[in-house]
Amino acid sequence: MSNPDEQSDCDWRPTAGLEALRLRARGLALIRAFFAERDVLEVETPAMARSGASDVHIASLSTICHAGGAASGQFYLQSSPEFAMKRLLAAGSGPIYQVCRAFRDAESGRLHNPEFTLLEWYRPGFDHHGLMDELDTLMDRVLGSAGTTRRLTYRDAFVEHGGLDVFEASTHALLARAEDSGLMLSGDSPAERDMLLDFLFSHTVQPALRDGRVYVYDFPASQAALARVRATQPPVAERFELFLNGIEIANGYHELADADEQRQRFAADGVARKRLGLAQMPADERLLAALAHGLPDCAGVAVGLERLFMIAAGESSIQAVMAFPLTRA
Amino acid sequence: MASYSTNEFKSGLKIMIDNDPCTIIENEFVKPGKGQAFSRVKFRNLKTGRVIERTFKSGESVEAADVVEATLQYLYNDGTEWHFMDEESYEQHTAGKEVVGDAANWLKEQDSCTVTLWNDTPILVVPPNFVSLLVSNTDPGLRGDTASGATKPATVQTGATIKVPLFVEEGELIKIDTRTGEYVSRVKE
Fold it and tell me: What ipTM score was computed for the predicted complex, to two decimals?
């Protein structure tokens, strides 16, 4: 996508048309009105902080600040406002939402820009199903209520569209299926189960979810991220994603509130980062202290607003609804 | 051997896939919000011409294919192989029937053509878009008939047979579009 930009001598211009920018502004106004009606408080949290996401698949950008004392040193541009918003929830904020810029290094393409806009909100007293209901109401508001809405478990999505039960299939069987579907692995690359699931989901299941809205929930426990795990057999993470026309739009959790388990997940991420040769990410001690103090039982979700507005505008790339993507920033 | 990381992938890049040289047509970044990033690549196998899709884990490296396109002069056919020469270095290359393929229909001695070399060996020969060839055999011409649009078969000096207008005569030089194999015009010498 970069070539036309590099060659053009008018790359000072926005990549979005003015109509798309107006649609974007109307969408933001609708979203703020939606939460105002429901007494969900708009908040703002830092874009740069001492810690970032520990997830091995999220590469944080960092910067050095020279403001003296505790305001000096390395800070991470936030890949999501999750940690800070959970600290507000632990401090008794009640339901909150935020529209903010988030940053992820090494992500660029038709559906990715290293700087993008997230809508994130948290609902004390909701589980992931309750939050899917509210998200669906918001989608009605932004997109109109036309179209179909479906909910299915991660397991059923795979059975229906991938033709296998991922909770039963061996890693060897997943690898064989992935290679049949075009995955090329170099000899020294281990075929990790979650990588194979990510490949099969994005290449075989997701294309089949192209009609309307599909909510996929109850992910494998190994993909819990920051969701709580329900001790069923097999255990599942109380996590969901929304796909609009087959495009991933939102990711939500019935939030993990246990400080000890959160600490263990940070540690496990640290071990995985070391194994993969990635930089260590300091554990967010303030988040852990807030969880130890007590996070209300809650669910939270993050919505990629460029993708949502892209679909609302009938476009096929997020650059069509961004004034200046990074290649023109 | 040089290699490319997936984040260097772009259209036109030449890489080795399944031991064959390939050129990338399209590269798409695919990444679940929480999960592994991939490069989904559409590429053309330069030996077979087939277009295939494969997916790599982001960050993996793929061997570069030593592929160059050279403009070479076609020298002659020795009965089994076609001989070409680099007009600057005088280096010669030979290519067999499986490489030359249909290009053989349009190769005239001393014409320049585009030869794709992989590890210095021809894998694809593309003739010029237009070539001028002598008509070696065709039915007698109908003088004056320049407008009816009717055609007849004609064999040209390379042995290929094409359709030509009725007025074209044996011994005439004609211009042919090698991409379609169609007659374009007569050539005034």
Answer: 0.90
Closest CA to B61 of B118, B119, B7: B7
Residue A172, classed as helix, strand or coil, is: helix
Instruction: Judge if B50 and B73 occupy the same domain.
Output: no
pLDDT digits (tens, 9 = 90+) for B28-67: 999 998 999 999 999 999 988 899 999 999 989 999 999 9
Q: What range defines the domain where residue B91 resides?
A: 68-126
Taking an 8 Å cut-off on Cβ atoms, the answer to whether B61 and A186 are in contact is: yes
Rounded Cα gap, residues A129 and A231, in angstroms: 17
- Which domains does chain A possess? 2-148+211-328 (3.30.930.10)
Q: How many domains does chain B have?
A: 3
CA count, 13 A, side-chain hemisphere, B153: 4
- Substitution target from B10, B20, B31 for chain A, most A beta carbons within 10 A: B31
SS3 A129: helix
Contacts of B154 (CB under 8 A, 6+ apart): B135, B137, B138, B161, B162, B163, B164, B168, B174
Query: If you count residue pairs, one on A and one on B, with CB atoms under 8 Å apart, how many are there?
Result: 71
